Structures are given as C-alpha cells and as structure tokens.
C-alpha cells in the first residue's frame, strides 16, 4: 500500500476538497476518507495528483525560527524533483516573524490539531482495520514508555498520534516518512511504521539524543529505521555507541546546509566598530549567561565591546537581569526572534560571531556566519571543530571557561579587518565545500530513492 511508485502532486497546490463555505461537507468528506473525527482546528486535506511520489516529513514543532535548515532542506529536495508533504506534531506557539516560515506553516498539517476526539477516532479505526498491528504497536509504545523519562501515558499519546498520521500518510500515498530529531517525532514515526505505515528514517541532531539515548530508545529507533542521518562525524560516532554494529552501515552523514543567499553573497567589508553577534535560542546549552559575564570582564578592563544577542527563549529574563546587574545596557542588546534577513544584517554588521555553547550538534548559524565571511568564536563541542579551524577561520575555547572566552573575544576585537577578512574567506571556502544545501540534499534524495 505504501510502496507506490507514482509521484504525488505538490502539497503547496492547496486544492481543497470543498470550498470553505461548505465546511460541514468538507468535514464529512475528510472523515469518510480517514475515519478520523476532526477537532475544532480542522485543516482540510490537500488533494494530491496520482502521478507523483510523496516523501513525508515529520517534525516535533514546525516551522520555528530556529529551524531554517529544515525549510532549506525541503526546498532543495523539491528542486531535486521530490514532493514533500509536511507534518508536525504541534504548531508553533507564538507568532512567526519570517515570511518563509509563515508560508511553511500554511503547508504543514498538525497532528494534534485533530483534538482529543480525533485521536480517539483514529485509534478506533486502526483497531478495527489492523487489530494485530494495533496490539503489537501498543505493546511497543508501552515498553519504550517504561524506560522513558516521559512515562507511559505520554507514549500512549504518541501511539494515538501515530494512528492519526497513518491515515494521513495513506491519503497522501506517501512511500517514506522522514523525521527530524530522534525524540518524540521519531517515536511517532516508528510507531506509525509498526502499525503498517511506510518505512521511516530520521535525522539525529543532538545534543538531546546523545544526552539520554536509552530513555529515547535510540537503539530501537535505529534498528527499525530504513536509514539514519547524522549531521557530523561526531554525531555519527554517538549513534554508533547506541546501536548494534550490524546497524552501523545504515547511518549516513548528511550535513545541514546553507543556500545560495549565503554562498553567493560575496565578501563584505569587516566593520571597524567593536561589535560581535551571538545568534541562537536563549537557553542553557548556548552559554549566553557566560557570554554576558565575559562582556562584563572586557568592559571592566577597558576593552571597547558591543554584542548583539539575536534570538529568544526561556533564559531571556535571567540574561536581562544579569545585564542590569553589571550595568551593561550600553554594551549588550537582545533583538528577540529575527527574520533570515535580519540575521544576515546582524552578521554583516559584526566583526565576528560568538557562540559559547555547552552542548550542540553542529549549529547552522556557524555555517551562515562563515558563509558570509565572518570568523567564529565558539567551543570544542560536538561537531563544531569539524567546521571551525582555530587560527584559520576562528577561535575555539573550552566550554564553560570564562577566561578562555574573554581571551578569544579580545583577540577578535583586536584583529585588523584584513586579518578577519582572511579568516572569513577560509571559512567561506570550507562551508561551500561541506555545507552546500543543494549538494547535501542530493545525498538525502538518493537515500529516499
């Protein structure tokens, strides 16, 4: 059923089954096709043509401002001739600032949008149509839930989500499902496959998958997957740790990438102002609290410095409090979430980018900074040393070391524009060789084929 070889039409062509004014008829038609009672946030299904194969994507919460790399990957796969149906477990909470993200949101169906009745209806339908698979998959969800720090109850919800997704994938005639992040999205993909859905694969980014691999049943997910993607050599080594050696051949490296907007931007002059920029979600793993302390040290010693924090997140209030305590309001500015265009502008207005992360996969923003010719100050964490070469395209410091961070930032502020431009060129060449989204997405497309 899921091994169809005909291509499906582009889900961007949103030909509705009925006009919006016929909402009741629309709802009845959808229930007749999927057997799922739909909740109050009903999203009419897309009508696909019968001449194209759809690869389905599943992400925990999509789109998000910090997930431009997924959007680029999908766009590049579309250029390679694949049709991508977008699914998310839940919609982004809060407004989106980038028009491209808003466009993606309109193309993406949220599983939890069906509501409680929709989840129950989907489970009931699968129970009656695939009773043995239903029982086997329920036992699987119960078993992995026992080991999980999220508990069995939440895994029963994942089971219900898998039942909803199963109907949607059947309607789309999807022949393969790809999940991003080896967390709950891959759990749902694995359960959907166990119910009789299409083969699945997933991209593990880190650090969460590597922090609690047993709780996430990472080995089980790898064993049942058609293939698995790591975004760096480091990431692949961590996946090797938690699966049987017989599964090692199915683990491939496909780097996250940047597109022509970055790769073909050309070299921009390094500004003379002592400005640095840090881009990322304001959270513990990114190290922004340590960065503010480093700025306080530089200001105290009389080094001119200004830093812009681009992003938002749970640590915004503590960061603002620390800025106020050290009276750094004239030296540290927080922009909140920013569009891709604003991120580019902030990178080009800075001498270098600073990202003092404690835990990572391989941050896409480092690729973006280097692609635009800006050196990077970061840490010896995960896949970062595979991209940033100390003394060539930036500086790397031990994570958590304020002293080392201050020294590296001082060097970036003291370097001449010519020195920084040379480092930026070296970084741009490395990104072009390793992180071109067209090249990397071709690897993924070949695996899908």
Structure report:
By secondary structure, this protein is of the alpha/beta class. The protein has two domains: 234 residues, Rossmann fold (3-Layer(aba) Sandwich); 175 residues, Rossmann fold (3-Layer(aba) Sandwich). 46% of the residues lie in helices and 14% in strands. The protein is built from 18 helices and 13 strands. The strands form two sheets. It has a seven-stranded parallel sheet, sandwiched between helices. It has a six-stranded parallel sheet with strand order 10-9-8-11-12-13, with helices on both faces. Helix 4 crosses helix 5, helix 5 packs across helix 6 and helix 12 packs across helix 16. It is elongated, with a radius of gyration of 23 Å. The N terminus is likely disordered.
Low-confidence stretches: 1-51
| Number of helical regions | 18
CATH architecture call of the largest domain: 3-Layer(aba) Sandwich
**Coarse shape:** elongated
Percent helix: 40-55%
User: What's the number of structural domains?
Assistant: 2
Average residue pLDDT? 89
- N- to C-terminal distance: 17 Å
Name of the CATH first level of the largest domain:
Alpha Beta
Quantity of strands, as a count: 13
**Largest β-sheet summary:** 7 strands, parallel
Give the C-alpha Rg. Answer: 23 Å
Which percent band covers the strand fraction?
5-15%
Strand order of the largest sheet: 3-2-1-4-5-6-7
The CATH H-level homologous superfamily of the largest domain? Glycogen Phosphorylase B
Reported by name, the CATH topology of the largest domain is Rossmann fold
SS-derived structural category? alpha/beta
């Amino acid at each position: 059923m899921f091994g169809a070889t005909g291509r499906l039409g582009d889900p961007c062509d949103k030909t509705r089954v009925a006009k919006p004014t016929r909402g009741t008829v629309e709802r009845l038609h959808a229930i007749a096709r999927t057997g799922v009672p739909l909740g109050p946030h009903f999203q009419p299904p897309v009508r696909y043509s019968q001449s194209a194969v759809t690869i389905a994507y599943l992400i925990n919460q999509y789109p998000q401002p910090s997930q431009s790399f997924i959007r680029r990957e999908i766009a590049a796969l579309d250029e390679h001739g694949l049709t991508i149906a977008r699914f998310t477990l839940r919609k982004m909470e809060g407004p989106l600032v980038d028009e491209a993200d808003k466009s993606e949101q309109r193309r993406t169906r949220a599983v939890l949008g069906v509501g409680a009745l929709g989840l129950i209806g989907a489970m009931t339908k699968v129970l009656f149509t695939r009773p043995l698979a239903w029982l086997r998959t329920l036992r699987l969800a119960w078993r992995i839930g026992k080991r999980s720090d999220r508990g069995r109850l939440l895994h029963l919800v994942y089971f219900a989500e898998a039942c909803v997704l199963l109907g949607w994938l059947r309607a789309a005639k999807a022949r393969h499902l790809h999940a991003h992040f080896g967390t709950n999205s891959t759990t749902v993909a694995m359960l959907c496959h166990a119910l009789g859905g299409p083969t699945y694969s997933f991209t593990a980014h880190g650090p969460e998958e590597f922090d609690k691999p047993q709780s996430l049943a990472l080995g089980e997910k790898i064993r049942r997957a058609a293939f698995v993607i790591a975004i760096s050599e480091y990431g692949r080594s961590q996946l090797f740790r938690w699966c049987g050696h017989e599964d090692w051949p199915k683990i491939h490296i496909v780097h996250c990438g940047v597109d022509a907007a970055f790769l073909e931007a050309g070299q921009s002059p390094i500004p003379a102002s002592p400005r640095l920029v840090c881009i990322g979600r304001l959270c513990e793993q990114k190290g922004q609290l340590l960065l503010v302390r480093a700025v306080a040290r530089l200001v105290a010693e009389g080094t001119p410095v200004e830093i812009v924090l681009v992003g938002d997140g749970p640590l915004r209030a503590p960061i603002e409090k620390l800025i106020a305590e050290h009276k750094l309001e004239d030296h540290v500015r927080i922009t909140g979430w920013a569009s891709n265009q604003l991120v580019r502008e902030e990178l080009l207005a800075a001498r270098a980018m600073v990202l003092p992360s404690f835990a990572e996969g391989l941050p896409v923003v480092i690729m973006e900074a280097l692609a635009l010719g800006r050196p990077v100050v970061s840490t010896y964490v995960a896949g970062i040393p595979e991209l940033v070469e100390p003394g060539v395209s930036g500086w790397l410091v031990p994570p958590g070391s304020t002293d080392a961070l201050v020294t590296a930032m001082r060097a970036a502020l003291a370097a001449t524009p010519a020195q920084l431009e040379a480092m930026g060129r070296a970084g741009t060449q490395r990104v072009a060789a390793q992180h071109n989204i067209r090249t990397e997405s071709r690897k993924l497309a070949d695996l899908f084929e």
